[in-house]
Amino acid sequence: MLPLIGITSNNMKNPGSGAELSYNGWTYTNAVTRGGGLPILLPSLTDEAQLDALAERCDGFVFSGGIDVTPCCYGEMAHPLVGDTSLKLDRSQIGLLKRVIAARKPFLAICRGHQVLNVACGGTLYQDNSLHGGEVARHMVKDDRGDISHQVTIYPDSTLHTMFGDRIWINSYHHQSVHRLGDGLKITAVADDGIIEAVELVDYPYGLGIQWHPEAMLIAGDEMLPVFEGLIEAARK
């Protein structure tokens, strides 16, 4: 039986009717199916019992990219450079991720999901990469989603290092990043300008946060497929 992989959704309003929609790009479902799993799109729920049920029913999870995390979720006021936010989306995904971790279910957290992971573990974010200090590269690239942008250094003794070695090229579509690291996390990849690009939960079956978009890089080639195959393999167990 194929492992059931829940993929978090984003919210938007129908331009015509104003009705709230749950959506996500096809690249996420494509990545999960190519990795050997069965994808299902998860709505943004805030009911405690419903979040419990989602965490129980799925074998693994992908926390997808999307809008900024509301700064109040990590105890800060919003900087003028913060983009669109949704407190409902934050409460849904942070609540679900805490339950997933408590159940020790495997997950992959991508871009916004990587930041949600850090916040769920008690960490904070740079509300804009320009606040990181020093000279920071342009991480919000406007090229095609699958195009590579810059390199990252991967630390030894990490899941990513077993897959890719010391250095890889990645794409880049984010203006926020991890600041104070959350509890139970370790940094596993950084950009040359010091921006944290990946984290992992310590002593956990498969709990990986990635700032880039591996699902979009699958458009151009298979280099990032091991990230999803690793998730599906962990979900089978």
List the helices and strands and how they pair.
Layout: E1 4-8, E2 10-13, E3 20-23, H1 26-35, E4 38-42, H2 48-57, E5 60-63, H3 87-102, E6 107-110, H4 112-120, E7 125-126, E8 150-154, H5 159-164, E9 167-170, E10 177-178, E11 185-191, E12 196-201, E13 207-210, H6 214-217, H7 225-236
Parallel strand pairs: 1-4, 1-5, 5-6, 6-13
Antiparallel strand pairs: 2-3, 7-10, 8-9, 8-11, 11-12, 12-13
Helix pairs in contact: 1-7, 2-3, 3-4
Q: Shape, please?
A: globular
Estimated structural class: alpha/beta
Rg measurement, Å: 17 Å
Please count the helical segments: 7
Mean pLDDT: 93
Strand content: 15-25%
Question: What helical percentage do the residues reach?
Answer: 25-40%
- Secondary-structure element order, as H and E? EEEHEHEHEHEEHEEEEEHH
Distance between the termini: 12 Å
As residue ranges, the low-confidence spans are none
Largest sheet: 9 strands, mixed
Count all strands and give the number: 13
Strand order of the largest sheet: 4-1-5-6-13-12-11-8-9
